[in-house]
Amino acid sequence: MATRLTSHSLVLTSLSFIVIASYFLTPAAGTGRMVGGMMEIKDVKTNKEVQLLGKFSVEEYNRRRRRRDGEIRREAIGNVLEMNDGYLTFSEVVEAQKQVVSGLKYYMKVAATRNGVKRTFDAVVVVKPWLSSKQLLHFSPSSNY
Predict the structure, then answer these.
(1) Could you report the per-residue pLDDT of 34-47, keeping only the tens digit for each?
(2) Whole-model pTM?
(3) Maximum Cα interatomic distance, the chain, rounded to a whole number of Å
């Protein structure tokens, strides 16, 4: 009887292992996506976190541009009259996706105005909550919006 119980326990343990392993090695439960794949963010316009990340991307772009413009101004020694001709004002994030990497990587289409003209930009931001860090990886005019 002890042998029969042991082999029965072995079969149940093996089946449990197979079920658990297949859960982690197949597309994410119910989503049809692989773990680490891109996930569409549906409620972009009402998602406060995404909107704040879009605002952060525009502010970071402007901060980098100001620093670059300051360097140009110093190098030009008076030849550049006004460099403040194209800073952006954040409007809203219109599309977003996220991907689990070493943190969360957000791919966003950000609407912003420059000199009164509304344009769309592609922005990529990585958030590492355990380090309280955000980093703008990419920001450029969107070609397909």
Answers:
(1) 557 899 999 999 99
(2) 0.69
(3) 95
> Percentages helix, strand, coil for the chain, rounded to the nearest 5?
40, 35, 25
pLDDT band, residue 125 (cuts 50/70/90) = very high
Q: Which one is predicted more confidently, 108 or 1? A: 108
Cα–Cα distance for residue pair 13/144, rounded to 1 Å: 52
Residue-wise DSSP of 70-118:
HHHHHHHTT------S--EEEEEEEEEEEEEESEEEEEEEEEEEETTEE
Torsion sign over Cα 30, 36, 39, 45 = positive
Residue 63 near residue 56 (C-beta atoms within 8 A): no
Six-digit token string for 27: 């597309």
